[in-house]
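hey can u check if this looks right to u? its 418 residues, i copy pasted from the old doc so theres a chance i mangled smth
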Amino acid sequence: MRIAIVSSLFPPFAIGGAEEAAAQLALGLRDAGHEVAVVSTCRRADLKHGDCRIDNWEGIPVWRIAPWNLYWKFDQALENPNRLRRTAWHALDLWNISTTFPLDRVLSGIAPEVINTHNIDGLSPVVWRIAHRHTEAIAHTLHDCHLLCPRATMRKRNGTPCDRLCAGCRGYAAYHLLFRRYVKLLIAPAKATAEVHKQAGWPAPRIAVIANGLDAAPVQVPAAPQDGPLRVVFMSRLEREKGCETLIRVIEQCRQSDEIDFHVAGKGIYAAKFENLCRDFPNVKWRGFVAGSAKQDLLTNGDVFLQLSECHENAPLSLIEAKRYGLYLIGSRIGGIPEIIDSAEAGMLLQPGNASALFAILRDLRDTRKALRANRATRVKGAGAYGRLEMAQQYAGAFRSLLDTNGSRLAVRRASAL
């Protein structure tokens, strides 16, 4: 199949797991023998000539366009726009007409049989209408709640998770539903995400649940339990909704402990706060943004992995990767996290924002850390080996079902265009 993956951001310009999931899928589909191209965005200043450019990423062509908006999504963390500017950005993104011509031109160059959209903020829903000019086989992957909530987090301004859509979000979600006719399949990495969208009015098109997969480096499990403090890893996008305030409260409670070390990695608005904590608290280690061997080293030498999200989380790749490495997982009981921490052997769940419960859990694990380390090989084995190829095979099956359903109409449309 000839497949176009459309994602508003794509490596090396990535800010979260959505971009990494799209990248893993592109690699998996390519390795399975499909012809894959990616469509993404860049800064307007990066377009030297014309309205698009073509990069090469891991042997996959990445077509980049630059729709007009107040800022590029990748630069948001650097620019830290105020609320008014963010609101204006979202308003323009509801129907960004500047996307139309360059996207149409790029898709004409790719001539895809299937188009799989991922995060479309920065491209706007116009992407589906333009995609429909080129194929009826359009699938959208749900990485968060962007179709339902402007913040994509299902979370109020005061930090409280939303049980249902507020009045503003109901209007926002209804607007996206206007484009439902262009999308033939939704793909959700977690059952919880699929259910939230069904309840919000997306019973059709059908929703397929396909878990995120990634290929991790071979896990080197320590041969024997080691001495030393309990090593707690927090590797995340460093924003409030990811539980940064909860972690800071726990770190402050553990400031006198020399038996618990916190290793914090990531980037975001809380990065400076964690850097300062590293200077003030000797048991806090600041790792910055990690990738490659640095991330492998962090996970290999960790004992416990924290996923403290306070928003409707989907299926965090960092949590899946930590599970593959055999770390003991502590996660919030929200969204798709319980689908990953699915047994007492894998880890524990707690209510979002419950710092006192987290402190008690870490204190107990501190006292039993030798047994925790001794059981790591068992956890690695229990995590299984669901990688990007397995994920790609499931996606390919879903794509073929779209072509089987729409193939005759596609043939008629293409013949009439000749």
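Confidence is low (pLDDT under 50) at residues 414-418.
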